[in-house]
Amino acid sequence: MYTLLSGLYRHWTRKEEYYVIIIGLDNAGKTTLLERIKSIFTGVQGLPPEKIAPTIGLNIGKISLDKVHVNFWDLGGQLELHSIWEKYYAEAHAVIFVVDSTDVARLETVKSTFDRVVTSDALEGLPILMLANKQDVPGCLRVEEIKEVFNPIAVQLGARDSKVLPCVALTGSGVRDAVDWLFVRIQRNRIHRPPVFRE
Ligand SMILES: Nc1nc2c(ncn2[C@@H]2O[C@H](COP(=O)(O)OP(=O)(O)OP(=O)(O)O)[C@@H](O)[C@H]2O)c(=O)[nH]1
Ligand SMILES: [Mg+2]
């Protein structure tokens, strides 16, 4: 009886955890986004933008939504760091791919990088959210223009959930919508990539 009750108690009180990787080229605004997510969802002020340096290793953030923990892994975007991303794919439940909407010169590099990400076997079926960041900068690529560029690649996305959303990581505009969109999709995809359960 005791075993049954303690088993039920453990079942009820265990916490579900999901992992989201934040990737994209260097300077896209990934760490700024992570700090903004922390500020919005934990109420604890994240690092101010002027204190954020280029990421070499990994930055971690954790938020709770409806008693579910969502962990964010923000990885460095410099080209020589891209091979490290793959080490996190197997444990990820979703991908946020951040694009610098002002960086027209590197669109081809963004395309080939995104192409490698969406065709990676380890990420197959996972929700992918592309964030068109820095929408506050006059003259930047608008979401519709970015969608046009990435539509040919999106064909390879198959039946998985994917979306392009605008955001301004610097001010937080669009960040809540982005996380809300992702949260619904990772839960919807839980049969294919179940959460981690923590006691
Ligand atoms: N105007 C504007 N600038 C932004 C925005 N988000 C980030 N930035 C700036 O872009 C620069 C790079 O931001 P980071 O967050 O360090 O970029 P990152 O993608 O983490 O870069 P790596 O760690 O090198 O991969 C910083 O100067 C930020 O202040 C935004 O929404 N608007
Ligand atoms: Mg960074």
UniProtKB/TrEMBL annotation:
Protein keywords: GTP-binding, Magnesium, Metal-binding, Nucleotide-binding
Annotated residues for binding of GTP: G24, L25, D26, N27, A28, G29, K30, T31, G77, N133, K134, Q135, D136
InterPro entries: P-loop_NTPase, Small_GTP-bd, Small_GTPase_ARF, Small_GTPase_ARF/SAR
Keyword GTP-binding appears in the UniProt entry: yes
One MF annotation (Gene Ontology) recorded for this entry: GTPase activity
PROSITE patterns: ARF (PS51417), RAB (PS51419)
UniProt entry tagged with the keyword Hydrolase: no
Listed name of the protein: Small GTP-binding protein domain
Species classification: Eukaryota, Fungi, Fungi incertae sedis, Blastocladiomycota, Blastocladiomycetes
